């Protein structure tokens, strides 16, 4: 099968979070299973060019229809750790992708509407006719709309779309200018409830809703989150739309790319280990302490790695930091916040805790350091308010780092409480789970984990090893996606 992935991120060249990991990891797995995969991405000024090999001109004069005129673009091609990627660079005053950031601009809707249009125009002009176009999140929600309303009539009548939602919170609400810009000209036609009109704001179109309605298959990133999005407020107002389209909507649990996330071969950690020589993990712990200037004492390290925003339960992250210290543990945080109030808050905490030898807060994005933290910590905290899948707990498993999580979304499908899980026998349990959002809930789970570490270190190690035994690679999810692609091919 010939599959083209269109997305706003692909790790490690463009990564702000889990979307990038998934786009890369799934593409690699699909190729391993014998399919042809190409990726189309924006050419951001701030991406990690050091992860691209052989970048060259692939299509020089691409003219993308825009507001009745056309924007001149260049398309570059290069390899990102073996994947063929096409990067679209528009030459226009809007400077869509030369902003020094991936997201967070006031015209993000226009930037990614343009990218969606440009990606399809590139496929059309370069005579690429994939069997399946797989696109992701609100940024590419317009792809199936444009395909079925415009490009189908220009020769792309045989392409099918799979649309994956990684985060229902950000849906891409826009005004009619997006329609005008992209050539979706009959405003009244798109501003209808069964098309792009937002379910709550009648004056806005909703790009994610368009993605759901127009795609042949829609997925989200874990089975439990699929249920939550359909039946609870976690669908952020799209539950009814999902209900109407339930026949094509499923949850596929993400995987982890073990080529990249693997303590046996990780290039960013100073020692390599597996279940067979688990004691070597101690060296990673020492390296982490020495890099972050933590004191070397017999204490567990609890880590948090992730975006710092409401989704991730920042109030519990903050509380857990002090609770861990009070329980005789060390705490390491690696995170970045886009919301100014949260950013200020954590900078304040960082300054306050600066001289504490048991705590380190690293504010910013640092891929290399994240690997050392996964390897060097004993526990990884994921106290999310909601979590469509969650990759950090799965990476934690691979590195023998025990997750302490809130039982929501994909965390329910992957973490099984050591003491209370009803469905797994003790030898299959792999972490700690709490459910409420108050301080007592997170404390109770941390308490059990930290006490076990101190009082029964062998049992704690056994729990970590049981996590390492799980296979959360892309192998199975890759097969699930191929089945979905096959099911839509001839529809
Ligand atoms: N400051 C930092 N420095 C270095 N690395 C950092 C970092 N902050 C985060 N990361 C890394 O980014 C990834 C984040 O994974 P998450 O599962 O938390 O995804 P996120 O919530 O962004 O995305 C959404 O998409 C993913 C993928 O579908 C879902 O798992 C998730 O539930 C959903 O919210 C991990 O690889 C983590 O190590």
Automatic annotation (TrEMBL):
GO MF, one example: alpha-1,4-glucan glucosyltransferase (ADP-glucose donor) activity
Annotated Starch synthase catalytic domain residues: 3-242
Keyword Metal-binding: no
Keywords assigned: Glycogen biosynthesis, Glycosyltransferase, Transferase
Catalytic activity: [(1->4)-alpha-D-glucosyl](n) + ADP-alpha-D-glucose = [(1->4)-alpha-D-glucosyl](n+1) + ADP + H(+)
Domain of life, per lineage: Bacteria
EC number per UniProt: 2.4.1.21
A Pfam match: Glycos_transf_1
Record domain Glycosyl transferase family: where: 294-462
Name of the top EC class for this enzyme: transferase
Pathway: Glycan biosynthesis; glycogen biosynthesis
UniProt-listed SUPFAM superfamilies: UDP-Glycosyltransferase/glycogen phosphorylase
UniProt binding sites for ADP-alpha-D-glucose: 15
Function: Synthesizes alpha-1,4-glucan chains using ADP-glucose.
Entry's family note: Belongs to the glycosyltransferase 1 family. Bacterial/plant glycogen synthase subfamily.
UniProt-recorded name of the protein: Glycogen synthase
